[in-house]
Design goal:
By secondary structure, the chain is mainly alpha-helical. It has helices at residues 11-14, 29-44, 48-132, 138-160, 175-185. Helix 2 runs antiparallel to helix 3 (48-132). The longest helix has 85 residues, at 48-132.
């Protein structure tokens, strides 16, 4: 724009206080449009120094645009890389959780199987003692009833853990039954 002295506004006039960084969200193209209009007027009036000044201003805007595009590309690449990293960490954590769940279940199952294996001889001894008890007096009958109550409770606990009696006396040997027994012991 031309003032009363014939001065055509340059790039320094293209930005006002409201276009300064942090002064508000003005449309960034408005300063560029003003610079282009000033450039057009400078060319029309053959003001080469003013035209060169505006060309330098436009060049600086172009350089800033290129720099910002590079920064955007670098940040996009970094974002993509971090997103992939987060996805890998999430998958690793999910695999870790599943593995620890399997290991915990295996540990509980193995511990339970070991306890049951150690209790089976006690069960055999209970059954041998049961066969030997002959209650002849009332006191012996009370002891026998207490014993039977303990034996019943012991069998219920074993049953709740998946241990079931297998009738083998008088039956032909079945190797698959032994495998089932060993599975029953580790359940």
């Amino acid at each position: 724009m031309e003032d009363s002295d014939g001065y055509v506004g340059g790039p320094e006039d293209a930005t006002s206080d409201s276009d300064a960084p942090g002064a508000g969200e003005e449309e960034p193209a408005s300063g560029l449009i003003f610079a282009l209009q000033s450039y057009k007027e400078a060319l029309a009036s053959n003001d080469e120094s003013k035209a060169a000044e505006i060309e330098a201003f436009i060049k600086s805007i172009e350089d800033e645009k290129i720099e910002l595009e590079k920064k955007l590309a670098a940040l996009s690449e970094e974002f993509s890389s971090e997103k992939d990293r987060v996805l890998r960490i999430s998958a690793d954590f999910d695999n870790f959780r599943k593995r620890t769940d399997r290991e915990r279940l295996s540990l509980v199952t193995n511990a339970q199987g070991e306890v049951l294996e150690n209790l089976l001889p006690v069960l055999d001894n209970f059954e041998r003692a049961k066969a030997q008890i002959k209650a002849e007096s009332e006191a012996e009958e009370k002891i026998n009833n207490s014993y039977q109550s303990i034996y019943k409770q012991f069998m219920e606990i074993l049953g709740s853990l998946g241990v079931m009696p297998v009738e083998t006396i008088g039956n032909p040997f079945d190797p698959s039954m032994g495998k089932q027994e060993s599975n029953a012991l580790t359940v």
